[in-house]
Write a structure and sequence with these properties.
0% strand; single chain
Length: 106
C-alpha cells in the first residue's frame, strides 16, 4: 500500500479513537457509554489491522467489542436502578424514603 494512505488512515483512526474516548467519558447514560466503548474497540481493531497485527485485531473484535459489550449490557439490565423493595413487589409507600429519592434522581 501507499505510505501516504497508511499514514492518513492511521491519523483518521487515531482521531476516531479520541472521539470515541471523549464520548464515553462525557456520556451521562450508561448504555451510551457501553456503546461508545464498543465503537472504541472496533476502531482499535482497525488500528491493529493497520499495524499488521491481525491476530490481535481479531481478538480485540471478539472480546473487546463483542463479549465485553454483551456482559456490560446484561449487567446494566440486571441492575437497572430498582431498589430491592421494588423488586420484591412492595408498594411505593412501603419503601424507605431514601429509595424513593434515588428513583427520582435516576
Amino acid at each position: 500500500m501507499n505510505l501516504n494512505l497508511i499514514v492518513n488512515l492511521e491519523s483518521i483512526l487515531s482521531i476516531m479513537l479520541l472521539g470515541a474516548t471523549i464520548s464515553v467519558v462525557f456520556s451521562r447514560n450508561m448504555i451510551n457509554a457501553v456503546i461508545g466503548c464498543s465503537v472504541f474497540s472496533m476502531f482499535l481493531t482497525l488500528k491493529y489491522f493497520t499495524l499488521n497485527a491481525p491476530d490481535v485485531a481479531i481478538t480485540e473484535a471478539a472480546l473487546g467489542a463483542g463479549l465485553s459489550t454483551l456482559v456490560f449490557l446484561v449487567a446494566i439490565h440486571k441492575t437497572s436502578g430498582r431498589s430491592p423493595a421494588a423488586k420484591r413487589g412492595a408498594p411505593a409507600g412501603d419503601r424507605p424514603a431514601d429509595s424513593r429519592e434515588q428513583d427520582q434522581r435516576c
